[in-house]
Each structure stands twice: as C-alpha cells, then as structure tokens.
Specification:
With about 625 residues, the protein is α/β, with parallel strands linked by helices. It contains 18 helices and 31 strands. The protein has two domains: about 5-305 and about 385-480, ANL, N-terminal domain (Rossmann fold, 3-Layer(aba) Sandwich), CATH 3.40.50.12780; about 500-625, ANL, C-terminal domain (GMP Synthetase, Chain A, domain 3, 2-Layer Sandwich), CATH 3.30.300. Helix 16 (about 550-565) links the parallel strand 30 and strand 31. Helix 3 (about 55-65) runs parallel beside helix 10. Adenosine monophosphate (AMP) binds near residues 364, 365, 414 and 476.
Length: about 625
C-alpha cells in the first residue's frame, strides 16, 4: 500500500514531508522556516531560503555531469525543422539572453512579458528571466492584442519579448502587429521589445523601442545566476476568471522548484535522463510546468513541439515524435486524442512507429471521457492516466501517482489526492458531502508548495475569489464527488468558466464583448458540448428593441468582435437570437438550464423561473444552430 503510506507520511507531518523533498534542490542559503503560517490565509514555503530556479534547471546539471545530454529538443513540423540543445548549450544561450535583458534595464523583480510561439527562444527567454530574478509573464499567442494589452497594464513589464509570427497549419499569424497594437492600447508602455524575426513572417521594428533578437544576442554579455528568495515571484500567468479581467496567478521560486522536481518522479514516474514530452503550449500552465521547469529541474530532456496532433501532416504526428526522440512519458489534453481518434479510428498510423520505450500517457486540462481513455489504453498498451489540476495549483491535485504506486484506473476519475493536497467535497452548508454526492471540491489550507501564494498585486481578489467560500479552504471552482474508495470525480465548474479544447475560457469575458455591441440589449454565453473540443461557446443574444438590421450581419459582427477582442482561441462561432433570456424571479440568467437544453440533456424546470415559456424559445433558437437535438 505504498500510496497510502506516502499519503499518511505527508498527513502526519507535512513540513517534514516537504523539507525532505526540498533536499533535492540546490539552495544558496537554507530556509529558516519550512512553512511560514504567521499570516493566514497567506502561507509561504521555505521562507528565508535563497536559490535560483535557472541554476537548478540548467547550471546544476552542466556542473553535475549532464553538460552533453540533450536538455531541449525542438520539433517543428510546421516549419519542417528540428533543433536541439544540450544542457551546456541551453545554459549558454540562456546566460546570454539574460545579458540582453540586463542591458535593457531588466533586473530582479522587473516584469518581462513573453509573447511567442512554440520556439526554443520562448524557453530561453523564460529561463533567462529566472536567471536574473525578473518575473516573466508568458501570454499565449492565440490571444488578441486587447487581451495582451490587459496583461501589459496589469504586469507593467519593462521589456517585452516576442516572436514576429506564429505558424498555424492554415495561416501565418503575424504577432508583431498584434504586439504593436497591444502596446498602443495599453496605458503602460514597456521600454523595449526584443523581437525574434522568423523568416516565415518578419516584423517591422520600431526604431528606438524594438531590437532584433539576433542583434541583441550578438552584443550581450552572459550573466550568472542571481540569488533569489524562495518567496520571490518566478512568474505571473494570467488565467480566466469569471469576468473579462484575467487573474494574475503568481508562482514563487522555492516552493515551485521543490514541487516540480518532486512531481516528476512521484507523479509521472520519470527518472533524470529520460525524455519527457508535454504536448501543450508554453502559454499555458502545462507548458510552464511540464515543458519548461519540471523536466529541466529533474535533468530530463524536454520536447518542444510546434505542431498539432493532426494535420501536421497526419494523425501519426505524435507517434513519430515519440519514436524519433525516444519519449518515455507523454502529457497532453484529451482533446488531442479525440482529434487523432477521429481521423484514425483504427490507429493505423500508430502501427507504423516503434514505441518500445514509451511507458505512460498522462491526460489533463479537461474531463477525460471514457471512450477516449479506452481508445488510448487499448491502442497504446501503456497506462493512461487522467490527472486533475489547474493554473492556480501549477501541478496535479489528484492523480494516479505512477512513481508511488499505480492504483487501479476508474474511467472518469483522476484517482486520488496527490500527497501534499487535502481534498474535500463540501455541500452547500460546508459539511463534508457523503460518498457519491456532488459538492464543491475544496482544498484545505495551506496549499502545498508550488501553488499560488496570491494574485499579482491583488491579495484582496485572491482572498475573495478563492478563500472566502469556507474558512480554511481553497475553492477550486470545480464540482464533483468522491466515491467509497476515495476516488475523485470532477464533473463540472461551479462558475462561468468553460473548457474549449483544454483551454480555460471565461464566458463572462465573452458576454462583456457581446454586450458592448451597439445592437445588443442582453446576452448570455454558455458552453455547449462538442465531440472534439469538449465544449464550445454559444451566444444567446437579445437585440435592443427597434433594431432592424439583418440578423446575419449582426451575428457576423458579434463573432468577429469576440475573435478580435479575445482571440481565435475562444473558438466563438455560434450565436443565436432570442426575444428574452430565461431568468429566475430575482433576475439571474439560467445559464445552467440553457446548457442542458443545448446538450439535449434532461433538466428540471427551476422552481424560481420567472417565465417558463422563455425556455421553449431558447430551445427553438438553439435548434436553429444545430443544438438542442437540432439538425
Ligand atoms: N497563435 C495564434 N492562433 C492560434 C494559436 C496560437 N498559438 N493556437 C491556436 N490558434 C487559433 C487556431 O488557428 C484556430 O483558429 P481558426 O479559428 O482560424 O481555425 C483557433 O485558435 C482555435 O485553435 P485550436 O483550439 O487549436 O483549434 P484547432 O481547430 O486549430 O485544433 C485541436 C483542434 C484539437 C487539434 C487542438 O485544439 C489541439 O491540439 N488541442 C490540444 C490541446 C492542448 O494542447 N491544450 C493545452 C492544455 S494541456
Ligand atoms: P487550467 O487552469 O486552464 O489548467 O484549467 C483548469 C480547469 O480545467 C480545472 O479547474 C477543471 O475545471 C478542468 N480540468 C483540468 N484537468 C481536468 C481533469 N483531469 N478532469 C476534469 N477537469 C479538468
């Protein structure tokens, strides 16, 4: 019963448990307190400790015998190119780019926003920030300039680092004009922008502000790692909240390094020297944790893949990468496997590759449906592990910890709490829900190392968003239940966040965009079921009285507005018009009921509904666009 033993050891003395894990990290100065709990609900791990995350991810391995081992393999089917870096090479590139940042005036505590596609320079820029104690904030390329501007105003970066373009299978996305627009929109103006010019779409540089990556690197002096407090921020990563204003999740240096390193062996069962591949994007938390930090802290080779699961060029792309680079463990979102399964249901492509060294597949980011799990397990013949976490935690809350003990898989469940987390399902009164009953999934404070200590510049929002629901608990925002064996099942969100292709999006943010259209009186956005992406946003819109413009035109404008103001990643393509929205008597829009109608699921008429006939109208409107069992 190894899992039970490890979990019991954590429970009996959490501080000793994490102090032992922290010995795997190189500290410049030891911590004075494992856990500083003097100011609840704010907790800090390893306070007094001093380290450098970049040192632990690179220099330490170069000095310790891994200088010639590959640290990073870049595989880019969209540019038909590959590049790789040994630990020594990556350390040198990072040290030099740290010199670029220092020359541009960035230092400890300064923010640097990175807006780049999946290229090695994105990883180099992140680690270079860590090297000099600057705080990076990576913004996903599929976000619009307005979203980027919001993040610029919140993080107030001194320097921006961008790629000139991203490459999507169907088009080149010019990032540079988006960057320029964002800076124009933002109130805060960064001093300088370093632009990595890509031959597929170079950008125009603005004299005095912009500098080309190659030029900057040629003039830079390599920098050594600076000492950083364990409690100093390493990065800010913005994630969707319930409004259009994203939340700046802060990650500290010490607790993060400890949790990342520990998780590689305990959760993923990976040893130093092995090849680990997280097929995600550096713009998401999965990319931060498991493309960049954890595999490097553990001395693994990490794969950076600039491509898609299908179409680049075919549904065998993942198998090619695994075979070609000797990947032991792959981590991706279920939607990627649904895409592969849809194009290659018989797994014909899989048989063309030798996947001998491949040991396990981990899935996260959204609920994993049983069909996808079964398809992956029967074709790959390796453990397929669903695990559950979120941007805020930075690593798995619940998992089948392969490095501790492989527990039996229950489809639909990410198994049990990972040691470090105390997970409870609470009912509306705040009591623990009986096994099998759905409730709010909460984590008991303090959260383990690696989880967010607060939101950037906003302690109050941190408390209001996560800690107010029940005293002594963190609210995950997910609802679900625990079965009699203690297995967790994550069923839905309790807020207005939806999950599109493993990407977390705020329907509230989309509603704000729709509501700003001059013809819109009222609107609601719901996440309707989608076989490929899990959920897709659907807009229900009430027009202002007297509006007589063509419906088609208005709908096109609404779709274009969401794409422009939030970004293509929102995948907002469905909108329908209604005369009124169903509401409770107190005026609350019944989004949950509308979602059930869209999905053709059974629903109970809410007792507090104001006018039941509004639901019939919603059903007809949704049918027109292919939902609610429509055509
Ligand atoms: N820069 C600019 N645009 C981007 C982008 C980026 N980095 N990433 C995605 N987009 C655009 C896409 O081009 C697409 O635009 P379109 O409306 O013009 O077609 C839109 O955003 C939606 O992208 P995506 O969600 O990737 O959908 P898709 O239809 O192109 O591909 C999948 C579908 C399933 C193949 C894809 O979603 C996928 O690979 N998912 C894996 C999920 C994942 O990695 N999740 C991360 C968490 S683990
Ligand atoms: P993000 O912060 O973008 O990583 O999204 C986190 C959210 O995605 C969680 O709060 C869940 O709603 C959902 N999620 C992530 N992993 C899983 C999983 N394994 N099963 C169910 N939902 C998941």
């Amino acid at each position: 019963m190894a899992y039970e033993e490890v979990y019991a050891r954590f429970l009996s003395d959490p501080q000793d448990f994490w102090a032992q894990a922290a010995r795997e990290i190189d500290w410049m100065e030891p911590w004075q307190q494992v856990l500083d709990d003097s100011r609840p609900p704010f907790y800090h791990w390893f306070s007094g400790g001093v380290l450098n995350t970049c040192y632990n991810a690179l220099d330490r391995h170069v000095d310790g015998g891994r200088a010639q081992q590959l640290a990073l393999v870049y595989d880019s089917p969209v540019t038909q190119s590959q590049r790789s870096f040994t630990y020594a090479e990556l350390r040198d590139e990072v040290a030099r780019f740290a010199g670029v940042l220092v020359r541009l005036g960035a230092g400890k505590g300064d923010r640097v926003i990175i807006y780049m596609p999946m290229i090695p320079e994105a990883v180099i820029a992140m680690l270079a920030c860590a090297r000099i104690g600057a705080i990076h904030s990576v913004v996903f390329g599929g976000f619009s300039s307005r979203e980027l501007a919001t993040r610029i105003d919140d993080a107030k970066p001194k320097v921006m680092v961008a790629g000139s373009c991203g490459i999507e299978p169907n088009r080149i996305v010019q990032y540079k004009p988006l960057l320029d627009q964002a800076i124009e929109l933002a109130t805060h103006k960064p001093q300088s922008c370093v632009v990595l010019q890509r031959e597929q779409g170079p950008g125009e540089l603005l004299e005095g502000r912009d500098i080309a990556w190659s030029e900057a690197m040629a003039a830079a002096q390599p920098q050594a790692c600076v000492p950083v407090a364990a409690t100093d921020p390493l990065y800010i990563l913005y994630t969707s909240g319930t409004t259009g204003q994203p939340k700046g999740v802060v990650r500290d240096n010490g607790g993060h390094a400890v949790a990342m390193k520990w998780s590689m062996r305990a959760v993923y069962g990976v040893e130093p020297g092995e090849v680990f591949w997280a097929a995600s994007d550096v713009g998401w938390v999965v990319g931060h944790s498991y493309i960049v930090y954890a595999p490097l802290l553990h001395g693994c080779t990490t794969v950076l893949y600039e491509g898609k699961p299908v179409g680049t060029p075919d549904p065998g792309a993942f198998w090619r990468v695994i075979a070609e680079h000797g990947v032991s463990v792959l981590f991706t979102a279920p939607t990627a496997f649904r895409a592969i399964k849809r194009e290659d249901p018989g797994a014909e492509y899989l048989r063309r590759y030798d996947l001998q060294g491949f040991r396990a597949l981990f899935l996260a980011g959204e609920r994993c449906d049983s069909d996808t799990l079964a398809w992956a397990a029967s074709n790959l013949q390796v453990p397929v592990i669903d695990h559950w976490w979120q941007t805020e935690t930075g690593w798995a809350i619940a998992a089948n910890c392969l490095g501790i003990e492989q527990l039996p898989v229950k489809p639909g469940s990410p198994t049990k709490a990972v040691p470090g987390y105390r997970v409870e399902v609470l009912d509306e009164q705040g009591d623990e829900a009986p096994a099998g009953d759905i409730g709010r999934i909460m984590l008991r404070l303090p959260l383990p190392p690696g989880c967010l200590p607060t939101l950037w510049n906003d302690d109050q929002r941190f408390v209001d968003s996560y800690l107010r629901a029940e005293d002594g608990y963190y609210l995950t925002g997910d609802a679900g239940f625990q079965d009699e064996d203690g297995y967790l099942f994550i069923m839905s969100r309790i807020d207005d966040i939806i999950n599109v292709a493993g990407h977390r999006l705020s329907t509230g943010g989309m509603e704000e965009v729709l509501a700003s259209h001059p013809d819109v009186a009222e609107c609601a956005v719901i996440g309707a079921h989608d076989d490929l992406k899990g959920e897709l946003p659907v807009g229900l819109v009430v027009l202002k009285s007297g509006v007589s413009r063509r419906e088609k035109e208005i709908k096109e404008e609404l779709i274009a507005a969401v794409r422009e103001k939030i970004g293509p990643v929102a995948a907002f393509k469905k909108v329908t018009l209604v005369e009124r929205l169903p509401k409770t008597r107190s005026g609350k829009i019944l989004r949950g009921t509308m979602k059930k109608i869209a999905d053709g699921a059974e629903y109970r008429m809410p007792a507090t509904i104001d006018d039941p006939t509004a639901l019939d109208e919603v059903e007809r409107a949704l049918q027109k666009i292919g939902y609610a069992s429509g055509p």
